[in-house]
DUF488 domain-containing protein (Ancylobacter pratisalsi), 150 residues
Amino acid sequence: MPPLFTIGYEQVSASSVLDTLADAGVGLLVDVRAVASSRRAGFSKSLLSAGVASRGMGYLHLRGLGTPAEGRQAARAGRHEEMRRIFAEHIATPTAQDQLDELSRLVATGRPVCLLCYERHPEHCHRQIIAELICERIGVPIQHLAAPPV
């Protein structure tokens, strides 16, 4: 089984993220942002989806695995423990659990999957929590990718 990859796009260009994903052999990019839009060029849902498709990868947005607004505010303010608490409550909701089940099934197929969110450092991002939950369920290793900053 390949590892479950994660990547953040803070301080990086879309092309460097796409290069990093391709170099790692990612087959499916799973966007775990609650809101799949960005002021950073190339990271809105439609542009990102087109970019990964141009590299032969799939794209899936699992909005239900995104951090609620108050959790995103806590993360932006550097209150990472508060963000983790808010996300822990959110991940227990039926919608989030359904999407976690869907993600588990996708990872279990053996297709190389990468979780994408904004924060560069996974320890400050909910994608690490998601990856740890998948690891507990399936037993795959986690590998955090980092594209070169701009």
